[in-house]
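lol ok so funny story. i was supposed to be doing the assay writeup but got distracted and ended up predicting the structure for this chain instead. priorities right. anyway since i did it might as well share w the group, maybe its usefull for someone
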Amino acid sequence: MSSARRAKGYLHGFTPEERDRLYRQARFLEYKVHENLPFRRSRKLLEVGCGVGAQTEILLRRFPDLHVTGVDASPPNLEAARTFLAGLGWAASRFDLCEGDAGSLQFEADTFDSAFLCWILEHVGEPARVLSEVRRVLRPGSPVVVTEVQNATFFLDPYSPHTLAYWMAFNDHQLELGGDPFVGAKLGNLLQAVGFSDITTKVRTFHLDNRRVSERREFIAFWAELLLSGAEGLLAAGAVDPETVEGMKVELETVSRDPNAVFFYSFVQARARAS
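and the output, tada:
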């Protein structure tokens, strides 16, 4: 970002393993993130923070008349996205990928008729500036959908002290990098502050217990992969020690096998229209 409060890094790193994890994550959470999106009449969508193209693929697949312009600040991400999307014959000529600063978009006003942001504002220094730029390049009345984390909601039973200590360090480190692991709860205020209208927010919750045993097991495995994707960076920064990481691995394995385990986490999806 070129803004005054610039984020200093991506907690998960830019590795082939992280790229593959993002593809799995997008598909795993698709049924929650992409439910009833308001893009049926859209033709020119802006995706801010397109990353490796994981969400782009889903948007193109779900909306066959859509053309997506993706913007990302990472050249390795964009290279991965181009390779991935180019391998999908049905996506040919339906996407453009651009390197750019989300806080200073290189598009004219009123260029797009919809916008999509997913797991991006948690990594930027000034989310209001990004949303203001999105509003500028949208035509009046265009829908925007913003999906973000709310990391204060995480709960796990049986009690797992290493996992909770790691989670606190995970969030603290993201704050130190200039991001915001709690931005989901702030989306309504942010969208209103920069001039969007018809703003709604919906809390999307994963509450998995003995009523959904198979899904609980799958989700804990997914969550363990997400947590461990940040371990290298946290260890390098001295934010956690190896004992905490190893203790977390043992706890997550124990929880995954516990017949009475409980997993709880919520994220927030906001929808609005450009004024």
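The chain has a mean pLDDT of 94. Residues 16-33 form the longest helix (18 residues).
back to the writeup now i swear
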